[in-house]
Design goal:
Elements: H1 3-16, H2 18-30, H3 34-44, H4 51-63, H5 70-75, E1 76-77, E2 80-84, E3 88-92
Helix pairs in contact: 1-2, 2-3, 3-4
């Protein structure tokens, strides 16, 4: 499975799993290194992604060189990574 596929699957999981959303929100609020914290959480859920792979993938998505599903579009917005839950958090990559 390619890195792009793994990243898309992780973003899909985030958009559909409220527990994962809450955990991601918590680690992003507490972490000094957003990408590393996200990579560690992804690994916890079975997605083998490095911090650099997450950064590169998000940049490709934001540049418009990748097509997202509707759910991934909900998860991603503007120039930041947004988690749509009861509250919202944006992380600049």
């Amino acid at each position: 499975m390619s890195t792009n596929d793994k990243l898309h699957q992780f973003l899909q999981a985030v958009s559909q799993n409220q527990q994962l959303q809450q955990e991601l929100l918590a680690v992003l609020e507490a972490a000094e290194d957003d990408r590393q914290a996200t990579a560690e959480l992804a690994k916890k859920y079975g997605y083998d992604l490095s911090a650099q792979e997450i950064r590169d993938g998000i940049e490709r998505i934001q540049s418009g060189s990748e097509i997202l599903s509707d759910q991934e579009l909900i998860t991603m917005s503007g120039g930041s990574f947004s988690i749509k839950t009861g509250s919202s958090i944006q992380v600049k990559w």
